[in-house]
Amino acid sequence: MTSQAADTQDTRTPLVVRTRDELRDAQMRWALAGPVESGPDDGPGRRAVVMTMGALHDGHLELVRRARAEAGSSGQVVVTIFVNPLQFGAGEDLDTYPRDLDGDVAKLAGVGADVVFAPTPDVVYPDGDPVVRVSAGRIGEVLEGESRPGHLDGVLTVVLKLMHLVRPDVALFGEKDAQQLLAVRRMVRDLEVPVEVVGVPTVRETDGLALSSRNAYLSDDERERALALSRALRAGAAAADRGAPGVINDAREVLDGADGVVVDYLALVDPLTVAPVADDFSGPALLLVAARVGSTRLIDNQAVEVLPQR
């Protein structure tokens, strides 16, 4: 491949593959193509993966741009698009979850994706629902795990399967799904999975709303109400000099005053364990919120450097 081809790589429409054989063929062709002429600032030629459920937005595209940088010009960027049934509970939006593969592929054309792996459930789970699954352990029993039992187990099971199928050197995940990112990192560490996990900061609208595929469900009025989540997080972070109780109290005050927002949980936790911090805690923490606005469940989080109470 010439340097000119490398220069135009990020504007190409990615190759769409649907089966395991097609994915292996795309990986083999990349391996056989050999290195690309690259500049001195290019990273190593690695394979990077971004795992999504489709309905792509600018947050996903930022993950892919970062993946391109992590892979280097001679690397390969794979984006998976798969609505994973294992992570949806009874009564959740599996059947109505937004799907637009053609639109997603068009969005990926300009951000550096080489391959889109868009399998059907029978490709990922050829024997039906897997008998053996990954357990998130205690990380999957609190917060999101308590509200959505089995959710993180389903996430980790599909993430591990996709890691085996794609065989990436690096996998990128958004920090908006903070508990999921922690669970993936712990799985990779505990099970000796040879993949580097990179977290990418949350992408927000100019008014502070965290980007999410589920934002498409919100009416104009509900979208305005949903801004209470990011306002609450900012209020909590601003109270960091009053210790952990001040952070929670100020965030809770914003949520309590928001019409049409039904809070699932608000928690200030250790960013490595998701265990709630003590009232006398000081140091780095994560302020997490989940709430329903209309019929749409949204999550968000904010890093907080909690100071000793004055």
From TrEMBL:
It catalyses: (R)-pantoate + beta-alanine + ATP = (R)-pantothenate + AMP + diphosphate + H(+). GO terms for biological process: pantothenate biosynthetic process. It comes from Promicromonospora thailandica. The active site is at residue 60. It holds the Pfam family Pantoate_ligase. The gene is panC. Keywords: ATP-binding, Cytoplasm, Ligase, Nucleotide-binding, Pantothenate biosynthesis. ATP binds at residues 53-60, 174-177, 203, 211-214. This is Pantothenate synthetase.
